[in-house]
Amino acid sequence: MQQIERRRLMLGLSLSPLAFSGASAQPASPSAQPAPPLPAPSGRVILSVSGRIGVTNDGDAARFDRAMLEEIGMTSFTTATPWYDGPVTFEGVPMARLLQRIGAQGESVRAIALNDYSTEIPIADFARYDVLLALKRDGHYLTVRDKGPLFIVYPYDSDPALKSPRYYGRSAWQLARLVVH
Fold first, then answer.
1. 152, 90 in Cβ contact below 8 A?
2. For residues 48 and 16, what is the distance between their CA atoms, to the nearest angstrom?
3. Where is the Oxidoreductase molybdopterin-binding domain (predicted)?
4. What are phi and psi of 136, to 5 degrees?
5. Strands 175-180 vs 45-51: parallel, antiparallel or unpaired
6. Cis previous bond, 149, omega within 30
7. What CATH code is assigned to 35-180?
8. Taking a C-beta distance cutoff of 8 angstroms, is the pair 95, 132 a contact?
9. Helical segments of 52-158, H only
10. β-sheet bridge partners, residue 109
11. Rounded to whole angstroms, how far apart are CA atoms 47 and 150?
12. Domain residues of the chain, as ranges?
């Protein structure tokens, strides 16, 4: 670990908590620009994030429509789940990237669904397991009938530990809000 820290210092890389959690390190510089402002959503808001965040667009919250989430950058993976027959392909925004975009500073996130189901998720999970905020399943946008419009999904097939009630319980579907603690 000391060797990695020394190398980051030599390369001028950030030693922020996100850097140690597995998220991409950002170059440190005295003239580092703050995160760009978050535009106001032009479509229907499908996600609201509040709490310990540095970039907002509605008071102390960051509100997103689908296009804004997609602009952050989409990735995908295929995995089996307990909710669908056979492996499915999820496409969405990496949770670590979403939190980086809004300048989140915290240890955990409370995910709250449309039906008020909530679960606490350690932020370290997002980089460690490449957790997605899925918008699509098998190429189709998720609907409320199909666990949408947003579904926090782990790549369950990537690690046997993920195939457990602990991680299935963190996989909030019909997600509406996130609160960073």
1. no
2. 25
3. 79-155
4. -130, 150
5. parallel
6. yes
7. 3.90.420.10
8. yes
9. 66-72, 95-101, 124-129
10. 121, 180
11. 8
12. 1-33, 35-180
Q: What is the pLDDT along the chain (181 residues), one digit of tens a residue?
A: 333 333 333 333 333 334 333 333 333 333 456 678 999 999 999 999 999 999 999 999 999 999 999 999 999 999 999 999 999 999 999 999 999 999 999 999 999 999 999 999 999 999 999 999 999 999 999 999 999 999 999 999 999 999 999 999 999 999 999 999 9
Q: Which residues of 53-85 are buried (b: 16+ CB within 10 A; e: fewer)?
A: bebbeeeebbbbbbebbeebebeebebebeeee
Please list, in sequence order, all residues whose beta carbon lies within 8 angstroms of the beta carbon of residue 130, skipping any fewer than 6 positions away. 75, 77, 94, 96, 155, 158
Q: How many Cα neighbours within 13 Å face the side chain of 55? A: 16
CA–CA gap between residue 94 and residue 88 (Å, rounded): 17
Residue 136 CA from chain centroid, whole number = 15
DSSP state, 24?
P
pTM of the model: 0.82
Does residue 87 have a cis peptide bond before it, meaning omega lies within 30 degrees of 0? no
> Based on the number of CB atoms within 10 Å of its own CB, is 96 exposed (0-12), middle (13-18) or buried (19 or more)?
buried
